[in-house]
Amino acid sequence: MATSQDEMKLTFRKFKDGENKWSSMHDKIFVADTSHKCPVYVHRTPPCQGSCPAGEDIRGWLQIVRGIEKPAPGVEWHEYAFRRATDANPFPAMMGRVCPAPCEDGCNRNEVEEFVGINSVEQFIGDTAFENGYKFEAPALITDKKVAIVGGGPAGMSAAYHLRRRGIASVIFDDHDKLGGMMQYGIPNYRIPRSHLEHEINRIIEMGDIEVRTNTRVGKDVSVEELEKEFGAILWAIGCKTGRGLFVEGWDETPNCVSGVAYLEAFNKGDLKVTAKKVVCVGGGDTSIDVVSVSRRIGTVEDLDPSLAPEKVVAGEAKHDDALAAKRVPCEATLTALFPREEMTATEEEVRDALHEGVTILNEVMPVALVRDESGRATALRMAKCVVKDGRPEPIEGTEFDLEADLIVSAIGQGGDLTGLEDFDNGRGLMDSDQFYQVPNKPGHFVAGDIVRPHLLTTAIGQGSIAAESIEHYLKNEQQVKRPKVDKHHFDLLAKLKEAGLAPIEFHAEELGDLRGTSEGDWAVHNFEDRAAQEIITTDQMFLGHFQYTPRHKRAEHGPSAEEVLGHFEDRYTGLPEDEAKAEADRCMSCGLCFECDNCVIYCPQDAVYRVPKDKRTTGRYVATDYTRCIGCHICSDVCPTGYIDMAMGE
Questions:
Q1: Residue 138: inside a domain
Q2: Does residue 358 fall inside a structural domain?
Q3: Which tens digit of pLDDT belongs to each residue from 420-430?
Q4: pTM of the full structure
Q5: pLDDT in tens, 402-415
Q6: CA angle, 243 as apex, 239 and 248 as ends, to 5°?
Q7: b/e map 50-87, b = 16+ CB within 10 Å
Q8: Are both 402 and 428 inside the same structural domain?
Q9: Domains in the chain: how many in total?
């Protein structure tokens, strides 16, 4: 019985009949004329982009920096790289510094040696844009409807940026003095230079038709109903700024027990200048590392007035003045974690730096009780060694010990503050979202960022982009479009050909007839297939033997020692100079896209593979095949380093 249309599924699976590996290259070549397969040029997404929550075309901007992909006419390559990088993410200087770089974990070069330093090249692009004053372009508005964006953090700012690029105006509501969210109030200034952060925020606002209303809390100063009347859609990007307390008796009633996010906000606002003599932070993630690293930098003051105790500053009941900073002396900072060091969620780099700065880290321990004095203040945190079973820690009996503390900080997780927005609470202090980042059963309401699920800054930025696309469809009364398996911000050969003035001509069947079998017409890209929306290329499809060992070009780090850390707030990284940024970008293996190595041309025994003429050549369109010469020997595919050639014709 024939397969119905509904049952048919498109697949790229290759059929295999018997042995498909030749034991001898000699045999392979001499029976090659029996093969029905000839080369097809197939574009796939590299795993760096597949690992990036924002979906950046990482390979693309690395290709531009290294000089393989040439800019559009009249555009200088630094700006061209900036445009490509910010197509997905408007914060290259920020993410180049603080993103934990899942892209580097996914980098295929790890199978050869060490990953490409993607973060360092992204920082170079962002810092160069800062120095050269590059601006974002903004098209004309396509609608008079505006979008209310509640929250000016990475998700909200990303959404405002992507909406404006789509011709949609917005108004950003934020309950702080400044925009930036966790980038402004959660991450210390030595990790994110405030000059660069403010520049990247202002660059978005300067696109125009993005209004900002700070010190305004929706649900208190403005009602949800008012927003629904004024705006065509609402995006909730309020983040997670309430920290979880420790699961020990008396936590909420103990004054010198605070959350990590509140502690860091007090520091980043400039209110907290010094801390306690002995700070204990429970965590294991990046937030806990920031807490102890900040503590080591701001130090403490002997005989600090109790009215200026750190917990009072964190609670908003006091502020420190600059005079206190002049009296700083080192403090003790201890970080405790449930897991062994290699399993901590903080990046290895952050853990290493904290230890170098004099932080004490205790692994595989858990808090079991507070030790308090007669006034109710904590004097120690009782700990025990632990094991983790089924995701839950269990103390080991008889291993308890007291860890002296003047301030105890909990950095074990965050939640949303939905006061005044209780109708949106999913019962876990978060908001629900569907696959298009719409709030279920609330038409016109969308959501993005940590309030969906606390994760990376880059994740929030990526969600803001997707939400902006969904909002555009909603405002146009269009059905939401299913997203591809792999994100959209990848290389587009047709767009590149159009940019170079080489776009295929329009095909008119009534004039030319059915010519689908030809490879000579200018109305199609000759034997090219774009699978980037469906497939991520793996190293088993590549010729890794092409790549030689090339050491990384690492940016300089300013990690102070335990003796130098007090008062040390310099930018942690000195960006790569231009020649080293190019050299590091040149380590990219261009997985899934031709990088013009000429292997296929050199090794083809029939001279069937040839370079496309220079006046018709562009990235992704460097070589082609004369199929009257091709004998299907597979050599071009075997020696293609990037996996761009498939022996697929006839499948």
A1: no
A2: yes
A3: 999 999 999 99
A4: 0.91
A5: 999 999 999 999 99
A6: 155
A7: bbbbbbbbbbbbbbbbbebbbbeeeeeebbbbbbbbbb
A8: no
A9: 3
